[in-house]
């Protein structure tokens, strides 16, 4: 049975030829013409990578600041013995044993978790709970740090983490529909560059980034021309 799309999706298809590839700026112009939802939709880049998704040595992950922020209010949990200092630095939730107990009880109402190196000795026991949700603090993503003030500031300012899934895809928000085209362009360029630089050393083929599309929460996807990422 053919997949049914919403009226908004079908009307969006009429805006442009979605079989074509567009330079980034033009793709964002096409996106801007799609009908808007009643909420401020997230604009997302979706990457298809050429790596071997079954090889641990070719796992792709990293972080990048978004020049214009994500447009999203980020709820930050800090695992630390000094909860007062973390809250004063802007954390939404902070603590250690009591926070761990809440999580083990099913609570996950936060977007990013940061931990001090000392706290990680205990937090590691939550790996099976936080790992599958993408919430486990990790030194590579800058979320295991003893500079809690800087860690919170970076996350709140719009630093985002990306991680390849089991099918060699990455999806990452680069702003909101309410952003200007230039803000989305700058954020998207930062993300494309960051993903490109995350190419594993063991990847020896061509076309590390095979394709990229841009879409909003309720819109069709627009293909981005390979000239925007061919150097990767």
Rounded to an integer in angstroms, the radius of gyration calculated over CA atoms is 19 Å
Q: Provide the residue-averaged pLDDT.
A: 91
CATH topology-level fold name of the largest domain: Ribulose 1,5 Bisphosphate Carboxylase/Oxygenase
Largest sheet geometry: 5 strands, mixed
Query: What's the CATH architecture name of the largest domain?
Result: 2-Layer Sandwich
Helical content band = 25-40%
Question: Looking at this structure, what is the CATH superfamily of the largest domain?
Answer: Ribosomal protein L1/L10, rRNA-binding domain
Strand % is: 15-25%
Low-pLDDT stretches are: none
Level-1 CATH class name of the largest domain: Alpha Beta
Number of domains: 2
Enumerate how many helices there are, as a single number. 8
Count all strands and give the number: 10
Order of helices and strands: HEHEEEHEHEHHHEEHEE
User: Helices and strands: which structural class?
Assistant: alpha/beta
Shape assignment? globular
Termini gap: 38 Å
* Physical arrangement of strands within the biggest beta sheet: 1-10-9-2-8
Structure description:
- The chain is an alpha/beta fold and 232 residues long.
- The protein has two domains: 7-70 and 160-228, Ribulose 1,5 Bisphosphate Carboxylase/Oxygenase; 76-156, Rossmann fold (3-Layer(aba) Sandwich), CATH 3.40.50.790.
- It contains eight helices and ten strands.
- It has helices at 7-13, 24-33, 83-88, 97-104, 120-123, 127-130, 148-157, 181-197; strands spanning 21-22, 42-49, 61-65, 76-79, 93-95, 112-115, 159-163, 169-176, 209-216, 222-224.
- The strands form three sheets. A five-stranded mixed sheet has the order 1-10-9-2-8.
- Strand 4 (76-79), helix 3 and strand 5 form a beta-alpha-beta unit.
- Helix 2 (24-33) packs across helix 8 (181-197).
- The longest helix is centred in the last third of the chain and has 17 residues, at 181-197.
- It is globular and about 55 Å long.
- It starts with 6 loop residues before the first helix and ends in an 8-residue tail after the last strand.
- The model has no long low-confidence stretch (mean pLDDT 91).
- One of its GO terms (molecular function) is tRNA binding.
- Pfam families: Ribosomal_L1.
- This is Large ribosomal subunit protein uL1.
